[in-house]
């Protein structure tokens, strides 16, 4: 008997896998925002990429985030 084969074929016909898009669009590309502090202005900037203070031109210091420092809220 070919019941097994028929069931297999009917399952193939009934269930079609959705076509996978050829190119996935990464629209949700997160740009990490980093904190920068200017030692001269004592100001903190939030920017994606920053080399120097926009106000005085001093080189800003990148402030690592808590995640980068490896600090967790649970640790005391
Ligand atoms: Zn500055």
Describe the structure.
- The protein is an alpha+beta fold.
- It is 21% helix and 17% strand.
- A hairpin with a 4-residue loop joins strand 1 and strand 2 (43-47).
- It is elongated, with a radius of gyration of 27 Å.
- The model has no long low-confidence stretch (mean pLDDT 78).
- Zinc ion is lined by residues 38, 40-41, 53, 55-56, 58.
- The site of zinc ion has 7 residues, from loops.
Q: Nutshell version of this structure?
A:
The protein is an alpha+beta fold. It is built from two helices and three strands; from the N terminus they run αβββα. It has a domain at 32-65.
Number of strands: 3
Spatial separation of the terminal alpha carbons: 70 Å
Fraction of residues in helix: 10-25%
Q: Which segments are poorly predicted (pLDDT under 50) over 5 or more consecutive residues?
A: none
Largest sheet: 3 strands, antiparallel
Structural class of the helices, strands and pairings? alpha+beta
Proportion of residues in extended strands: 15-25%
Outline, from the CA principal axes? Answer: elongated
């Amino acid at each position: 008997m070919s019941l097994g084969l028929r069931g297999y074929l009917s399952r193939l016909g009934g269930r079609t896998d959705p076509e996978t898009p050829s190119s996935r669009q990464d629209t949700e590309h997160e740009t990490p925002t980093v904190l920068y502090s200017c030692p001269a202005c004592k100001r903190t900037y939030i920017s994606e990429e920053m080399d120097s203070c926009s106000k005085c031109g001093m080189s800003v210091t990148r402030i690592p985030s808590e995640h980068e420092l490896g600090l967790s809220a649970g640790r005391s």
